[in-house]
Amino acid sequence: MSLVTLIPLFPLIGFLINGIGFRHVPKSLVGIIGSAAALASFACALSLFIGFSGQPEVTHLFDWITVGKLNISMSFQIDQLSLLMLLIITGVGSLIHIYSVGYMHHDEGFGKFFAFLNLFLFFMLLLVLGSNFVVMFIGWEGVGLCSYLLIGFWNKNSNYGNAARKAFIMNRIGDLGFLLGIFLIINHFGSVEFADVFGKIAEGDYESGDKTLLYITLLLFVGAMGKSAQIPLYTWLPDAMAGPTPVSALIHAATMVTAGIYMIIRANIMYSLSPETLEIVGWVGAATAVLAASIGLFQNDIKKVLAYSTVSQLGYMFMGLGVMAYSSSFFHVMTHAFFKALLFLGAGSVIHAMSDEQDIRFMGGLRKKLPVTFITFLIATIAISGIPPFAGFFSKDEILAHVYEHNKLMWVVALAGSVMTSFYMFRLLFLTFFGEFRGTHEQEHHLHESPITMTLPLMLLAVLSAIGGFFNLPHIFNGHASLAEFMSPLFAHTHSTAHEADASTEIMLMVISVAAALIAAAFAYFLYIIKKSVPAADGQESGLKKVIYNKYYVDELYDKIFVTPITVLSNFFHSVIEFLVIDLIVEGIGKGVKILSGEARLLQNGTTGYYIFAMVISIAVILAWSLRAFLF
Amino acid sequence: MPILSFLIFLPVLASILVAVLPDSYKSQFRWIALIVTGLQLAGCIWVFTNFDRQSSDIQFLEQQDWITLSLGSLGTVSIDYLIGLDGVSMPMALLTGLVMFIGSISSFEIKQKEKAYFSLYLLLSGSVMGCFLALDFFLFYLFFEFMLLPMYFLIGLWGGPRREYASLKFFIYTLFGSIFILIVMIGLYFSVIDPYETAIHAGFIDVKSQMTPEIFGQIQELIKELKIAPEHMVHTFDMRLMTDSGNFLPQSLLSYVSGSTLFSVPARYLAFIFLMIGFAIKLPAVPVHTWLPDAHVEAPTPVSVVLAGILLKIGGYGFIRIAYSIFPDGAENFAVWIAAFGVLSIIYGAYNALAMNDLKKMIAYSSVSHMGFVMLGIASLTSEGINAALYQMFSHGILSSMLFLLVGVLYDRVHDRRIDSYRGLAVKMPVFTAFVAIAFFASLGLPAFSGFIGEFFSLMGAFNSSFLPKIFAVLGAFGIVLGAGYFLWALQKMFFGKFWVREHEELLTDLNFREKIMLTPLAILAFVFGILPHLLFDITSPTISEFMKLWIK
């Protein structure tokens, strides 16, 4: 069996052992099996990466479905893009598995948790390994299922159940677009294999702006919106924080939510020929980036802040895609996986220490009690805020530079988002780790640094967040842009790529964005360290702040314009159409027959005299009819 | 004994046996039913494994002259005992064996009037099987009508509080539909000539085996030119012959060339519509579906399982086997309408399911929605769509059986099916919850489960069909989103949150051994057919490719 097949196989085996043997596998073994499955996949991915020839390799497993003229095979594709995704998924995934051993230790569903986590890895690996759109779609739906199961993991709380359902259904709406996109691809290209479809586009003379490609790319993008939480399908992600924190780190920050970006990079040849779609992608990304960042400004739940930050950062990635800076977007996917996973795991460590308290208004001064968590969280905060030389600086600035070349207004929006990012992240950092402790005495007494299984992943991710930027060090810093170089074969057939800004512009943009981030950080320092202000209690906000705190009432709006009409309509169908129209007609016919037959029955009443009377009348009528010519 | 006759008549004979055995054997009846349906299932599996997957022909053919009446100058009536299997009927026959077997395990719950119950159940089993195997229209119609009788009593005697209303509604609805079918059947009979028998009567050949393509062509030519004496003409109910336009008498009502009209509608179109109405009631399609929720709610669990698992499929099967095969011109002409009703069923069924508080009713409406995909797939007139329609029927047979069994689990314990009577059942009944979750996710079309294949390809067929506007596929896909809505809503309401039951908390126990025995194989099958779709597509594809030639001019 080849290494490629082993990669998804290990987590699948892990899932089967922990899932079927739930409650029977000893607790000490569960974590080891789960983590070993992830690590084994990582080892395979790494050895594939090292031995990679530079040429895409398709491993055909079996013909899956042959129906009509269409043949869909189960096959895996190894190329630059899937390799990098594999490394991120299995690498970060392994760390999060190890972290979960400590974090979930006291949970009664420990075995179930690891089973679901392994199942998620399996589907996520299927998603990125699939060599055609259908296998990708299976992975796509599969991760949605795991996301549902893990968000609702603590399903005794019905709010968590609601969040899980919302996530699944919103994703399904996106999947609808993806599905129709696949149908259109089949309709137009007669195949779903990446190699066939993209090969045909590369050979064929497709004009830029081709109508079919426009529709396909738009439909696929709808799928990406759902999975990667872009406007208008973003509201599920903040709610998804109901799941255990390692889940938020793995699924809702590092891997699953980047599937949409993966998809667009995969299909970059189509997108590059659809400038209209790209324009939409870019602006949706920009709008999401700034909207989510603004909501993040005033959130008080440590995980909610990070969730909106994720939505916002995903917006940056789409912005990058919109200006065809594909490798820059991917660079950001990678660095974001490092620092956002780190932030979530750090938050988890804090929550763990605080006995499940998530509200930053009741934290403070934790840096003394949780030194490792503090240092690593600090590194991640600097990284996400775009302050050099940490990872986020390089990847975000690459996107910003490309955006600047494409559209100055979009750049301003992006810059505004990045200022807000810096502010809310430092606000979070200061409120959590600095100042005086604001929680209860019990909590204070209980404060402790997390065990090594939790801090080790934090430290490793901190290293990656610190140096991750050097994987793609730009030329102006005497780097080789190694990542972009490595990924370039993916864009070989893409007719046009993003413009490169010249060195002086690039440096100018860097200075501006770093200065902006520093000013925002300083402002946060002033507010929360010097002035020691603490956000107001719930319900005390006013004006614009209240609107933002309530997430612009988007959830309420969706409720009004989507959920309520559907409920009303379904009740209308059920109680009016079903009973008052259809069944009334059906029973009306029945009653009609009954009445008629009741009348007809009277004709046969058994009285001889009546029959004779009827006979005489009838004969008279018949006679009259036959003799009508004679009579009249 | 020929295997297919065995499949039909073993249960029928067993039914008679149960009926004549004295009541002192009461406790044995369920075992007889179990063993007989088990043998029936084993027979189906044997046929399934021995089915030639390369061939599009009728296999395991059995033919006996049954009724032959000479009517002098009106020709000869010939009704054959003609049964056989092709790629369309094979999945349905397998499903029948499977669901009937599971249903007989579930019937162990029946604690009153066992003799009548098991006798009727076995009779039903035989007649449903006959329906899928018959290739003679008359024989098909016979089985089709015969099914109504046991079904009527099974709902009407062992059902819930409103059982009489429900069983009567079911009966009259179906009977109403079957009258349309009967009319077309008679019309076809007068229009179609059996060239084989006619050749024998006219003295061209002595036995059927002497028939050569030349003589066949010659006969058809003579039929076309009306050169065969009426007394030599042999009319037939053989459905295989009805698909060949050359076998129609040129001046007859339903021939392709006569151009007859009834009420200023071409007679062939009208006949097609009649057949579609008859089978749409069975499917059921909106707006002739209202018997279904009532029948399901009142029927006892095993009868619901059989009803949803198999009986509905006769509708879809009838579309393909009869309406589409014999009237391809009508199918093409009305493709948009049929697809529209399919989409209407998908959406309308899903909306109604959303409004339900009765779990069993919700599942009944979800059946309406899922069978809409069958209609949409068939209407697409694409190979993918029709294969998928068959797949969807098979998959729905497995999943709806599972769903109704699961409702039965709750109902047997506390006699309450209201969704809002339960909360947090996952705590008390974890295994039950796991099965419900599997059944729900499989039903809402999650990949890796059988439902996905059927829905994916029927939508794809609709999308790629040259007969249908693309909006149908889009609307149908929207039905999948609604499906996720009602299934997850019910799952969350009933199983998650803090544990609470309206009453009889003490009666809620997790699945017992018998229930696990029924549910586990169904769950496994839903999964197996989700990841190995070629198990069925290999069977259906050759027949469907041959079938598709009806639309190539």
UniProtKB/TrEMBL annotation, chain A:
Keywords: Membrane, Transmembrane, Transmembrane helix. The keyword Transcription does not apply. Residues 132-421 form the NADH:quinone oxidoreductase/Mrp antiporter transmembrane domain. One of its GO terms (biological process) is ATP synthesis coupled electron transport. Its main location: membrane. Residues 64-114 form the NADH-Ubiquinone oxidoreductase (complex I) chain 5 N-terminal domain. The chain crosses the membrane at residues 6-22, 29-52, 81-101, 113-131, 137-155, 176-195, 215-237, 249-274, 280-298, 305-327, 333-351, 372-391, 411-434, 455-477, 507-530, 610-631. This is NADH dehydrogenase subunit L.
TrEMBL record, chain B:
One of its GO terms (cellular component) is membrane. It comes from the Bacteria. It is a multi-pass membrane protein. It is found in: Endomembrane system; Membrane. Keywords: Membrane, Transmembrane, Transmembrane helix. GO terms for molecular function: NADH dehydrogenase (ubiquinone) activity; NADH dehydrogenase activity; ubiquinone binding. Residues 134-189, 260-473 form the NADH:quinone oxidoreductase/Mrp antiporter transmembrane domain. The chain crosses the membrane at residues 29-51, 90-110, 117-135, 141-158, 170-190, 269-292, 304-327, 333-351, 363-383, 389-411, 431-453, 473-496, 517-537. It holds the Pfam family Proton_antipo_M. GO terms for biological process: ATP synthesis coupled electron transport; electron transport coupled proton transport. Belongs to the complex I subunit 4 family. PANTHER family: NADH-UBIQUINONE OXIDOREDUCTASE CHAIN 4 (PTHR43507:SF1). This is NADH dehydrogenase subunit M. It comes from Pseudarcicella hirudinis. The lineage of its organism: Bacteria, Pseudomonadati, Bacteroidota, Cytophagia, Cytophagales.
